[in-house]
Task: inverse folding
DNA sequence: TTGACAGGCAAGCCACCACTTGCCTATTGT
DNA sequence: ACAATAGGCAAGTGGTGGCTTGCCTGTCAA
């Protein structure tokens, strides 16, 4: 989870998916380069997406020759409560 | 910020501070070893605290020969809104 | 059917980071 | 005063994660 967010590139990928959800790999690469000046190989982005998906932050659906990616902030909100006082009131 | 949370050891340190706030360095080392089985050098913990403090997640006050550390979840809540849909409603 | 497009697999390189070791300073108690 | 305690500084090491390169598979359009 946190390890998935440790990389700035992955955070940018999440930014991009938050901005326009359901992008394919190819599309992501293009937009990352255009809008964020991030010059990454397709493989690099693909590996990042694997990590994000393993962390549950991204879900992907394969359709034909495309693979669409969707952001999921669920695990995020969950993990952020870790040091939240209000969730540990028995103290 | 996120880089500060990238390390599991640092997350444990935050856990410890959340459990008992205002600990000194040596106290943290002791409790981390006892309760979490984390065998770290004092220097290691010190360096982690530096990182956490640079990220604004921990504040420290030097008193005599002690340096007390306090957790601050402020930047945390801030950063978590990054991919939160409700904060970017103009879409 | 064949070429272009979208994606996957595997191995290798490199820099950074977590952690240690060794030594030094400052504060406290007796 | 001086020994013990609490902490700091700096340099070194090992592992791993981010990224690349090279090649292979699958899908669509003409």
Result:
């Amino acid at each position: 989870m946190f390890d998935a967010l440790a990389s700035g590139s992955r955070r940018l990928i999440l930014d991009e998916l938050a901005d326009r959800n359901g992008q394919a790999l190819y599309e992501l690469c293009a937009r990352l380069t255009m809008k964020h000046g991030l010059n990454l190989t397709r493989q690099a982005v693909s590996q990042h997406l694997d990590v994000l998906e393993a962390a549950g932050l991204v879900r992907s659906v394969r359709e034909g020759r495309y693979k669409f990616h969707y952001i999921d902030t669920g695990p995020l909100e969950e993990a952020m409560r870790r040091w939240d006082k209000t969730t540990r009131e028995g103290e």
Summary: DSSP finds five helices and three strands in chain A. Strands of chain A lie at 23-24, 58-63, 66-71.
